[in-house]
Specification:
This protein is an all-alpha fold. It contains 5 helices and no strands. InterPro entries: Hemerythrin-like.
Length: 181
């Protein structure tokens, strides 16, 4: 798109509005993924609470597949969005630290998800319920904390560029742990 060289005008306004709309849509898509991840965390917590009993094998296999299908692509999209929100100079030290912390948490969550998926796939009655319970809680507690931190980071990095509705959606997620507010 060609912009006027002067201080603004309609072309620049349309470009800025379009860019803001894209950021808004991408943030809303990530929030929708957070809703799906929170639902998965809720299901895993129910399993942890029900130990030593196990859900049927088909459900455990499905949960293991969900861990592999939801988490890595979500983390990739989130990292790309957060990085795109930094100014061209790389952002402030605090902004760079936010993103580095999230990247580190993504690695931890991915490892926990892989370990948990393997444990769910091979779980059987009589197995060490304490070990599975620990793995379940490590994953869903860490995942929930990570999502809250990511939502805070989105508010910090994209806040002025977000619509009021998207800003309110992120704030509701932080208040209630879900986008249903």
């Amino acid at each position: 798109m060609v912009l006027e060289r002067s201080g603004g005008g309609p072309a620049r306004a349309r470009f800025c509005e379009s860019w803001h709309d894209r950021v808004d849509r991408r943030v809303r898509a990530l929030v929708a993924e957070h809703v799906a991840l929170r639902a998965l965390c809720d299901r895993l917590e129910t399993i942890a609470d029900g130990l030593p009993g196990l859900p049927p094998e088909e459900e455990r296999q499905l949960l293991a597949r969900h861990l592999a299908a939801l988490l890595p692509p979500h983390q990739d999209r989130e990292d790309e969005l957060l990085t795109s929100l930094l100014p061209s100079g790389g952002g402030s030290a605090i902004e760079r630290s936010l993103i580095e912390r999230i990247r580190g948490q993504h690695i931890t969550d991915a490892v926990h998800a892989q370990d948990l998926a393997g444990a769910l796939e091979t779980a059987s009655p009589g197995m060490a319920a304490e070990a599975l319970g620990y793995m379940l809680r490590c994953f869903f507690d860490g995942c929930r904390r990570a999502m809250a931190f990511e939502e805070l980071a989105l508010l910090k990095l994209a806040g002025p560029r977000l619509s009021r509705d998207t800003d309110a959606l992120l704030e509701a997620c932080l208040r209630t742990g879900t986008a249903a507010a």
